[in-house]
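Issue: ligand-bound run for pyridoxal-5'-phosphate - logging full I/O for the record.

Environment: standard queue, default settings, no custom constraints.

Inputs:
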Amino acid sequence: MKYYSTKDKSHQVSLRQAVLSGMPADNGLYMPEKLPQVPDKILKNCSQLTFPELAVGVARLLLDDDVPLKILTKIINEALNFDAPLIYLTEKIYTLELFHGPTLAFKDFGARFMSRLMAFFIKDSNRSLNILVATSGDTGSAVANGFYWISGINVIVLYPAGKISKIQEQQIATLGENITALEVQGTFDDCQRLVKQALTDKVIGQSLAVSSANSINIARLIPQIFYYFRAYSQIQNSSYMELVISVPSGNFGNLTAGLMAKRMGLPVDRFIAATNVNDVVPEYLRTRVFTPRASVPTISNAMDVGNPSNFARILDLYNYNYESIAKDLWGSGYTDEQTQQEIKRIFDQTGYVCDPHSAVGSLALNDYLKTFNPNATGIFLETAHPAKFKPIVEEVIATEIEVPERLARCLSLPKLSHPIANDFDQFKEFLLTERHFR
Ligand SMILES: *Cc1c(COP(=O)(O)O)cnc(C)c1O
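Outputs:
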């Protein structure tokens, strides 16, 4: 299967090229040339399949010519070694828990799959591949953990000293092995500048193979399609009329994957774009006008995005036709105060504890069901474990929440990061002198 750029459909590359380069040179985003239909024999029997079996069934349709089935199966079995359970909350409302991976957020699905796919694509190279990542928190930890122990690939994560949470820092800086954490005396923008400069530096390019692993890589989107089918497989045998799925969104990768799943035949009637006050996509759905703007900080900070990159993919998927987009998608944005009240409401009514991002998903779902379709059944995605946002959540519900073992463990490990100045020459020197980067 070929992948084209959203900026130029005639610019087509192989999956290998799309994954290893991340992004076309014209600044578009890669999209698969086709979205094949999931055959009825898989859809009808999906409740009988394990998650990896179902994922292989869907993945084959997209990747069959590029990755031999045996290897694809191995990649999926390793990457999806945790489930995405669908939890019944109240009448007609379910939540799909996507936080059972190593860093307790759905980004684990994308990072674990991408790392193994990249390792397959570079297996015949005699050099290590060095992935440079600048992070303001969550992406860095998912990528670092996703590539942990993947042979032939090093990850160098740059994070701003004192500007990410303790949990995020521990998830990045305690791994060691092929993961190097650099604590930069500067801001996230400084980290990003250092990475960009290194990726284009001639001397670095001559001695090392360097690449990026940014969030718009198509290899991160593909595995997100799988868990929408997993959600369906768990509700398929219940009686319901229409099905809607609410997706807490920031850069809109997760929602794009859902819309791709629908195009491949996932029986869902409508998707909901749930945002915090950074609501440029809900605004587009209301007004037909897309106006990117500077992001505003909120308590659901992984969704603080003012110009979501994957919106370009959604436009492409629907041929830039507003009516078709609005037919499949409704959206709404919520304040921090509403988010906190929702965490409390869910806890008081059901005993279930949501993180702030998921609570935004629940708000939008409940609004939609009340306003437009009281007969529908809804699923909101649970994008992170509440323990990742412990202080905020505990204050709202006035109850202590349990920290999963894998998070507690990493909180007590020694921090292994190298402090560096906000200085390109020092960063370059570091890259060129570390022997195992070669
Ligand atoms: C990244 C993230 C989001 C937003 O996902 P997008 O694919 O960027 O829309 C939502 N919730 C959490 C917890 C995240 O880490």
